[in-house]
Amino acid sequence: MRVLHVDYQQLRSYGKTSVSWNEKLRYGLIKNDFYVQSFSDRDVAAFEAPFRIRDLGHKKANQRLIEMSEAVEPDILIAGHCDIITNKTLARIKKQQPNCTIVHCNNDGLFAPNNVERLKYRAEVADALFVSTGRKELSMLEGIGARIYHMPNPVEPSIDVLDNSKKTSLPIDLLFCSHATKHTDRLDLVKNIQTSVEGKMNFQVFGGHGKPAIWGRDYEHVLSQTKMGLNLNRQNNFYWYSSARMAQLAGNGILQFTHNAHRFDELLPDETVVYYENETDLVNKILAFHRDDEKRQAWASRCREFFHQEMNTTLYSRYIVEAALQIPFSHDYVWAQDINLNGSLKSN
Questions:
Q1: 297/163 Cα distance (integer angstroms)
Q2: Are 6 and 60 part of one and the same domain?
């Protein structure tokens, strides 16, 4: 299987980034013994542009992707968040490589500005769309020209190496990290929690209230010191939607709290993630688990085990390829229990 993976790899950050979902996807593809070539649209645009001004390199980046496709002859082209690459380019690749299946993977929430329009745009040329919101929520995208699937946020055992569920002497009791402040009021909730738990625990916040966001090894070092984390999405009304934070916390044995409106209780086993209904409920549960460290460890351990066993990059990437190419599923994927192989919802 030959895969051409197109996304932004942040090459010019030289390692000072958080591990992204698209990087985990690439790891998983390789673990499945697929041949993978990667193309970083924004980096290529900058490298090819006069004076390295990225906006001047868009046309050249599209030309280079066509050249790379000709050289690789992929069975499948996976286009992630690569807005520099046009549908015209993908259509040309499809014409030149008629046996190549083109899919778009999208890890943004449906509430993100223009994201629904971006999905509809990619559906004009893609054979399938994979979206990090639950399939039940994606009915708005049905009939737009591409098959539609949910994809989860996976853990990667070479990246998510911690198991804080086995540790008791950790200096950070509760953690929240973020860098997105638009289209959300979650920092108001965070501020209220800070007030409620002040003097009772060590609650650290990065990316809000005057503290800068952290990335790369700085983020990993903070995770290594943390017992519990807040998985607060920018909005709480989307089925099975979470940022990659959910997998980062789960995969490292850090107990997490998330809103019950996402209905992850329908996907994850009992006593793994702590669900809350409102601010008062959240504060009470934070304090309860803070007082009962054995319970915190037990829940975090079960969550970590489940993610590493059933929501890892190997299964995640295999699922995307199988669904894209309409190969019967080789595994009973926990996140695909409600869909048929063609992406349609199963009837009740």
A1: 10
A2: yes
Helices (H), 144-273: 186-197, 216-223, 245-251
Q: How many angstroms separate the most distant Cα atoms in the chain?
A: 64
User: Cβ(202)–Cβ(257) under 8 Å?
Assistant: no
Asked whether residue 187 is assigned to any structural domain, the reply reads: yes
Total structural domains within the chain: 2
Both 282 and 183 in one domain: the answer is: yes
Q: How confident is the model at residue 183 (pLDDT cuts 50, 70, 90)?
A: low
CA distance 305 to 133: 23
Residue 118 contacts residue 131 (beta carbons within 8 Å): no
Residue numbers of the domain that contains 129: 2-154+312-336
State whether residue 174 is helix, strand or coil. strand
Q: What is the CATH number of the domain that holds 83?
A: 3.40.50.2000
Q: Report in angstroms the alpha-carbon separations of 178 from 1, 211, 231, 243.
A: 37, 10, 10, 10
The predicted structure's pLDDT at residue 182 = 56
Task: Examine residue 341 and state whether it is found in any structural domain, yes or no.
Answer: no
Half-sphere exposure of 236 (CA within 13 A, CB side): 15
Record the pTM: 0.94
Identify the pLDDT of residue 348.
67
Q: Are the C-beta atoms of 174 and 184 separated by less than 8 Å?
A: no
Indicate whether 178 and 300 sit together in one domain. yes
Say how many C-beta atoms besides its own lie within 10 A of residue 134's C-beta: 20
Assess if residue 346 is contained within a domain: no
- Per-residue model confidence (pLDDT) at position 198: 94
State pLDDT tens for residues 74-127: 999 999 999 999 999 999 999 999 999 999 999 998 988 799 999 999 999 999
Are 324 and 182 contained in the same domain? no
Quote the pLDDT of residue 140.
87
Structure tokens at 238: 């989307």
**Contact at 8 Å (CB) between 213 and 206?**
yes
- Does 139 score more than 80 pLDDT? yes
- pLDDT tens for 198-234 read 999 999 999 876 788 888 899 999 999 999 999 998 7
